[in-house]
């Protein structure tokens, strides 16, 4: 099964941000929640209409997007440190 089949990008939905297919839940929202310390289980409880596989797809999509982009500074940032 291709995980990316769970992700959709449509300029008419959520301003073209990548979303979990069939929802208005953005990949960005999933990443923000996970980075804030929420667990996959927390997200599944809050959004019962998505699946763990869809969350994995969001992570894969983000990973692939990062591979295609070079990290750049945001205005006002001296540099990105991880």
Helix count from the secondary structure assignment: 3
Computed over alpha carbons, the radius of gyration is 14 Å
Total domain count: 1
Q: Major β-sheet, in short?
A: 2 strands, antiparallel
- In CATH, the architecture is Orthogonal Bundle
Question: Averaged pLDDT, please?
Answer: 88
Named CATH topology? Arc Repressor Mutant, subunit A
Care to count the β-strands? 2
**Top CATH class:** Mainly Alpha
| Proportion in helices | 40-55%
Ranges where pLDDT stays below 50 over 5 or more residues in a row are none
What would you give as the CATH superfamily? Winged helix-like DNA-binding domain superfamily/Winged helix DNA-binding domain
**Structural class assignment:** mainly alpha
Strand order of the largest sheet: 1-2
Distance between the ends: 32 Å
How would you sum up the global shape?
globular
Assess the beta-strand content as a share of residues: under 5%
- Counting copies of identical and different chains, the oligomeric state is single chain
- Taken in chain order, the helices and strands follow as EEHHH
């Amino acid at each position: 099964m291709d995980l990316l089949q769970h992700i959709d990008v449509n300029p008419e939905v959520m301003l073209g941000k990548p979303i979990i297919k069939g929802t208005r839940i953005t990949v960005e929202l999933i990443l923000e929640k996970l980075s804030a310390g929420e667990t996959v289980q927390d997200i599944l409880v809050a959004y019962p209409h998505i699946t763990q596989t869809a969350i994995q797809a969001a992570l894969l999509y983000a990973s692939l997007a990062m591979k295609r982009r070079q990290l750049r500074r945001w205005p006002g940032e001296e540099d990105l440190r991880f």
